[in-house]
Specification:
The complex is a heterodimer. Chain A is α/β, with parallel strands linked by helices. Chain A has helices spanning 18-29, 50-53, 68-73, 135-147, 160-172, 192-204, 251-255, 300-314, 379-391, 397-400, 409-412, and strands at residues 10-14, 35-40, 76-80, 84-88, 93-96, 101-103, 106-109, 113-115, 129-131, 152-156, 175-179, 208-210, 215-221, 224-229, 234-237, 239-242, 246-248, 260-261, 263-266, 277-279, 284-288, 293-295, 326-331, 334-340, 347-352, 360-366, 369-376. In chain A, strands 3-2-1-7-20 form a 5-stranded parallel beta sheet. A 5-stranded mixed beta sheet of chain B has the order 2-1-5-3-4. The longest helix of chain B is centred in the N-terminal third of the chain and has 7 residues, at 23-29. The chains are: A alpha/beta, B alpha+beta. Chain A: Keywords: FAD, Flavoprotein, Oxidoreductase. Chain A: Residues 326-408 form the Reductase C-terminal domain.
Chain lengths: 415, 104
């Protein structure tokens, strides 16, 4: 047995969201008998983040990842509201905000990311302007919404956070405008057909989504903001929500001399260039053997799966992170499930099921190789896509777009 | 109050009591092995797959279309399969037995 798997060993985890919490519990499953210390600057008991932009605006109950008793039962030491200042790799210690040091044998960075606040003139002095990343952010938005008379909400950014927030606020009865800088929404992550689908969906639900809107200034008068774009259009906003992307929290890792590229660089076991330091979740730029390259993902799936891999690696097993990424989004009654990475596609095929007009799937190919599937209200397409991508199956494209052919493996593959 | 029994894939029996929320949440809160609930209960990840004992299927009701679609290609799915994030706890569930399904 390795000398690391003793009761005296200490594993310190910085960051207690999906990645950090799952790592702690996975460590116990893998047989780690030593101490597990989780640190997070967020004072809230760790919670699910996806509902924040979806249901949490209307439902105030935080959906916790694990109950407080679970941490006790598994002897996981949860330290909330504590900031980690630095890492000393020579002494193998971290320094906390109160100046005390904590020793570690293994250290895991699950530091996540923070919202980008774009450099717009007047953004610092705008009233009721919030990003959306934490439960506290949503609490601010919810309070501002309930006390606002006119309830006009302007959302900067037509990505998933912005669009999910738009749908949630509309459901509460607000007047919602989404301003997207690109020529279409979700431009970075999906095909034009998907952008069209979501444009229509929001229009049908009474949300104004405007593209080609580059915001240059926010002027505030009497508690109301005026959002001004380069094309001179202006929008009155009682509340502004920022959803223009994230920046990886890599400063701690960087100052400790770990290698940073598009995030903290880790291998297929989530290990950094220091064999005793691992990094998991949104903050990592990790090697994925399926794609034979490094990727950075912002998703629960990646956080949870990397946590499992890192936990196994810390316990001296030899796992490899080789998962096909997947992701979901809920807006109004549309359930979107995505699998694979579409980067590099040169063809998309669209399949609309006969039975329901909102049951759509988009299949991304590079020549004959299926890269990714976006499935709307169609879990069957999602699971089938997952299998095809994993197996590297060759699909008969003419059958795929023929909706009289059922979505089943035997029907769609070349024999 | 409902007593719900989970039988894990290595045949351990865990009986829990719940009053509200989903069966998945109850299992996750009590670290039932094999039930992860990674998506938080929105029927998006299929990591809370259980088999309901046939005599208890009337208590839990049938799987919805989305559940069966999510399990369509799962080697361990059968007619007793449910995603337990979609089973709400109520007194009606008292005494049910759920076998945690193997995962792919």
């Amino acid at each position: 047995m390795s000398d690391i798997l003793t009761k005296e060993s200490i594993c310190v985890v910085i960051g207690a969201s999906h990645a950090g919490v799952n790592l702690a519990f996975s460590l116990r499953k893998e047989g780690w008998e030593g101490s597990i210390l989780l640190f997070d600057k967020d004072p809230e008991i760790p919670y699910h983040r996806p509902p924040l932009s979806k249901t949490y605006l209307s439902n105030e109950e935080v959906n916790v990842l694990k109950s407080a008793e679970s941490y006790q039962k598994e002897n996981i030491n949860l330290n909330l509201g504590v900031l980690v200042r630095s890492i000393n790799r020579t002494d193998k210690t971290i320094m906390l905000s109160d100046g005390t040091n904590q020793a570690y044998d293994k250290l895991v960075l699950a530091t996540g990311a923070r919202p980008i606040i774009p450099p717009i003139s007047g953004i610092e002095t705008a009233t009721h302007l919030y990003p959306l990343r934490t439960a506290e952010d949503v609490g601010h938005i919810r309070n501002a919404f309930h006390t606002s008379k006119n309830k006009r909400v302007v959302i900067l950014g037509g990505g998933y956070i912005g669009l999910e927030t738009a749908a949630s606020i509309k459901k509460l009865g607000g007047t919602v405008t989404v301003l997207e800088r690109e020529t279409r929404i979700l431009a970075r992550v999906t095909a034009p057909e998907m952008s069209d689908f979501f444009m229509n969906l929001h229009a049908e639900n009474g949300v104004e989504v405007l593209t080609d809107k580059n915001v240059t200034a926010i002027n505030g008068t009497n508690g109301v903001n005026m959002v001004i774009c380069t094309d001179e259009s202006q929008f009155e906003a009682d509340i502004i929500v920022i959803g223009v992307g994230i920046r990886v929290n890599s400063e701690l890792a960087n100052s400790a001399g770990l290698v940073i590229e598009n995030g903290i660089l880790v291998d297929e076991t989530a290990c950094t260039n220091d064999k005793d330091i691992f990094a998991i979740g949104d903050c990592t730029f990790h090697y994925n053997p399926h794609y034979n390259r490094h990727v950075r993902l912002e998703s629960v799936q990646n956080a949870v799966d990397q946590a499992k891999v890192a936990a196994a690696a810390i316990c001296d097993k030899h796992p490899v992170y080789n998962t096909i990424p997947w992701f979901w989004s809920d807006q109004y009654d549309a359930k979107l499930q995505m699998v694979g990475l579409s980067e590099g596609y040169n063809e998309t095929l669209i399949r609309k099921e006969e039975s329901e007009s909102t049951k759509i799937s988009i299949w991304y190919f590079k020549d004959d190789i299926l890269l990714a599937v976006d499935a709307i209200n169609n879990p069957k397409a999602f699971v089938l896509g997952t299998k095809f991508i994993k197996d590297g199956s060759k699909i008969d494209k003419s059958k795929l777009v023929d909706v009289s052919v059922p979505l089943k493996p035997d029907e769609l593959l070349f024999l | 109050m409902a007593k719900i029994t989970f039988i894990t894939t290595d045949n351990k029996t865990i009986t829990l009591e719940g009053t509200s929320g989903s069966v998945m949440q109850l299992a996750v809160d009590n670290s039932v092995p094999g039930i992860d609930g990674d998506c938080g209960g929105v029927c998006s990840c299929a990591t809370c797959h259980v088999h309901v004992a046939p005599e208890h299927q009337t208590k839990t009701g049938e799987a919805t279309e989305i559940e069966t679609d999510m399990l369509e290609l799962n080697d361990y799915a059968n007619e007793q399969s449910r995603l337990c994030c979609q089973i709400e706890i109520s007194d009606a569930l008292d005494g049910i037995v759920l076998q945690v399904a193997e995962s792919d």
